[in-house]
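It is worth pausing here to work through a concrete case rather than discussing structure prediction in the abstract. The textbook approach is simple: state the sequence, then state the predicted structure, then interpret. We follow exactly that order.
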Amino acid sequence: MDSETQGPTPTPPPEPTAAPQPPPSQVPVPKHDNQNKPSVVKELIKGCLHLFWTWIGFDALAEDFATHENAVRKAKVLRLLLVVAMIFGVCGYMLKGCFDSSEIREATKTIGDLRYENGSLRTSNSTYEVILDPVRKVAHELHPEMEMAAAVGRLADDLQQVRSLATKDLFRPLDQNSRSNLVAALRQVQTAYGTNQIRVTFTVGTGKTARLLADEWVSILNEAGLSAYCGTFRNMFSTPPPPDVLLRYVAEERSLAETFARAMQGLVLCRFNASPGLSGKGVLAVEVNGEPLFLPNGRVVFK
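Step two, the predicted structure:
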């Protein structure tokens, strides 16, 4: 009875269904505030690139780098820059090989040697300046009317003259050029005289330089084809004093004596006193009485 009197049983309300969940890979990760902030370094690089491309005139490319658009064009430009960098690298390597060549190294070494020699010359010049300073002072004191260079030159001439005077009594052989000329002149004397050989004897004092002069005179005459020898050495003290050079000859051959005396001026710078009195043919006798002094070229004068 109760079941019949009771009404229908109310149905419970449907339970709310949960919304479909996205897969974990698609769940958005909340971004922190520091990730949303632009990096200072990236912004600085981006700004530099923008200025660079704008500076060279590629405004469109500058906008691409600034807005991160048109990646294809940017990639092409980067590849071009890479190729250009490689070309510069290869050229630099080749140029380095050229500069490392042996010629360049040799030139570098030469420059270094020249610099060293230049330094050495400067040091030498400084030393010479110290040495020449007292010489310049003396030259200026002796020749104040002259310029310094001329005064030093005159001082050098004066010293040379003093040296020559101090060494005139020392034997000096005749220089080669003067000797050759004298030998040639004496050969002409012998040729002009004829086939008979001219004979010359010498008498000199006991001084060492007089004997050395006689020996040289004999050597020159023998080289020219004459027959010469040094006969005697004797003390030359006499009153009145004899002439520096006395030439004796055969009276009939005065011309031979004169020709011989003229030829001998190439060695002895004095006037020969000639005197006849010998006998025979082609005979000459030379007496050296004076004290010889020798010039720088070996020619002889007498005190």
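Step three, interpretation. The first helix runs from residue 2 to 5. The first strand starts at residue 199 and ends at 204.
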